[in-house]
Write a structure and sequence with these properties.
Length: 207
Amino acid sequence: MDITIRKIKTEDHYSIECMTKKAFWNLNMPGCDEHYLVHRIWNEPNYVPSVSSLAEAGEVIVGVILYTKCKVETVNGDFPVLTFGPLCVDPEYQNKGIGGKLLVESMKLAKQYDYKGILICGVPTYYPKFGFKTADTFGITMPDGSNFDAFMGYELQENALSEHKGKFYEPESLDCDIHDEEYVRQLEEFDKNYPYMEKKVLPGQWR
């Protein structure tokens, strides 16, 4: 399969949102809100279009990775880092290495643009294959001081994270509280712009 990785254009936005909905629907909860997160990221001041990328099979968008700027609060001030999410692939194209290709190529871009490190919350059995280590390796915690296996980091430059110990913060605009009634109302109104998919309660959902 011939897969092309390229930068994202404004005209790609709706197709990416549709693909993201398809990728996450009923995966972590009945329905999903990841496509709404993607929609909000386009206008997020911390969005990093120079590194964010999509995957195409022919002219069909089959995967995407979106980056935003975050920070680690250290005793010497804020240290800028990147995070990404969602990283997703159309279910019809999964298990073909597309997600890994998106990750590797976008990390190369991040390094070229002189970003220092990446911090994520992701699948702890997947990302270590690409060099990610648990954040406690670098002395970095969540805002409340906690750490867990899914919280991981990658140094784009040698010792970039380990020399900037502290607490990791994402932009507040990326918070998604599915227990907030107003947020759920906005999500349901937003979802009317996309092809209908049935919500289901399935084993393994955690949100």
